[in-house]
Design brief:
This protein is an all-alpha fold. It contains 10 helices and no strands. Helix 5 packs antiparallel against helix 9.
Length: 307
């Protein structure tokens, strides 16, 4: 999702909630830092708290619980995408909420832990949380630029799932042309025409056998000359110089096939770049959700008794 002006209210909401939470944190844990006197509700306990752990205090538990609920909401995005007919907000709203509520977990988590990593359990959770947030930021950044790059660099974008089939059709067309040329014979007319065909046909068939068909059949053609625009242009220029002008339409057709294969390869790389971050983001998010649930259960079982 592209970040634009439609996100302004979400940004304002996150900023306001962060400011309020920051004020409550200071008022509860560092009241001497306030330039004025402020009384917190009685249910938040003594000020400053008697317990030395931030997360085990009433306010710390509120921050932690809010972050955990946001984690649950963020995880529900995958379900909402599959259930597009549910009347609970459109997918665009869910995406915006997913982004900005997740951003809101940054201050919530920091206030919950009091800016301390703690032991191995909480330290491991913070590491998982960092992986989730960094991979999410990478995904957002990619979504700002990759779609525009696709529109700029791709003359024609095809349906990604159809690319293997379309590549197969290009290879089939090249192989059929190769068979047609194999059966072709030099014209029996003028001697100059026959001589030209005797020179052109081997050059074209050799190009098909050694350059075009290997490229069109390769799983990854980026390591082959025709996989690079400049090298391909030079190769086809050389082929045209060594063939009779009457073969230009056939050579143009071969070049078109190779250009389309290169375009689809580029689209595939951009697609993998655009979605590859999910390979890290989704598993780490699931691990974080499970770890946070375990952390919450441990916190509930830990009775809030002053040390």
């Amino acid at each position: 999702m592209k970040i634009d002006r439609s996100h302004s209210l979400w940004i304002l909401f996150v900023a306001l909630v962060t400011a309020v939470c920051g004020f409550l944190f200071v008022a509860n844990f560092l009241p001497h830092r306030l330039p004025f006197a402020f009384s917190l509700p009685a249910f938040l306990g003594p000020v400053p708290p008697l317990r030395r752990t931030f997360g085990g205090t009433p306010l710390g538990l509120i921050f932690g619980s809010a972050a955990f609920l946001i984690f649950l909401f963020a995880a529900a995005l995958g379900i909402r995408k599959k259930k597009r007919t549910w009347p609970i907000g459109n997918v665009q709203w869910w995406l915006k909420a997913h982004i900005w509520l997740t951003v809101l977990t940054l201050p919530l988590v920091l206030f919950h832990c009091g800016f301390h990593l703690g032991g191995w359990h909480t330290g491991g959770l913070m590491l998982l949380y960092t992986v989730v947030m960094v991979s999410g930021v990478v995904g957002i950044v990619l979504q700002q630029f990759v779609p525009g790059l696709m529109r700029e660099r791709l003359a024609r974008e095809v349906v990604f799932e159809e690319i293997p089939h379309l590549r197969g059709l290009l290879l089939q067309a090249a192989e059929e042309l190769r068979e047609d040329l194999k059966d072709s014979q030099p014209a029996t007319g003028a001697a100059t025409s026959a001589d030209a065909d005797q020179q052109s046909l081997p050059a074209i068939t050799r190009f098909l056998d050694q350059e075009c068909i290997p490229y069109l059949s390769a799983k990854n053609g980026s390591h082959l000359p025709l996989g690079h625009e400049r090298a391909a242009a030079a190769a086809f220029s050389s082929l045209r110089l060594n063939t009779d002008p009457k073969w230009k339409p056939r050579i143009d057709l071969i070049q078109k096939w190779c250009d389309e294969r290169r375009m689809m390869d580029f689209q595939t790389r951009l697609h993998h770049l655009l979605h590859g971050w999910l390979i890290v983001h989704v598993p780490s998010s699931i691990a974080l959700l499970i770890g946070t649930a375990w952390h919450a259960l441990a916190a509930v079982s830990f009775v809030a008794v002053p040390n």
